[in-house]
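Morning run. Coffee first, then this:
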Amino acid sequence: MNKVILVGRLARDPELRTTGGGQSVCRFAVAVDRRFKRDGQPTADFINVVAFGKQAELINQYLGKGRRIALEGRIQTGSYTAQDGSKRYTTDVILDSFDFIDSRNDGGYGQGSGGNFQSANNAAPAGGQNGGMSMDDVDSDFHLMADDDDLPF
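And here it is:
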């Protein structure tokens, strides 16, 4: 089983590109705090994430550096030969679904609004067909996920 669940903050603004076939691809990094601290200082892992289709467009539009995100996906590794002839290895999380955790009013950085956007078939679909939701599809009774500090247990 190859499944990843992460909660963290965007380490940089998302970068949206379009493939030759018209498919949207968004790349960003998520800073995920480690449970244990080194010398009293918090440490984080910076994990590269790739989103496709409507989700890529939504992330690019509504999230920016410093915004919190919860995401689910799978790890994908690869390699390529750089211009200098050296072999480079990559490890990315391919996004399956995500949740906005904070809102504009929470003092988060960047743009944004709360919402839950999922796609059953969005990991680099071959055709132009991809799932996802728009902000118009969110129910009026939608509420943001609570921080761990607000949980009653």
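The longest strand covers residues 68-81. Good start to the day.
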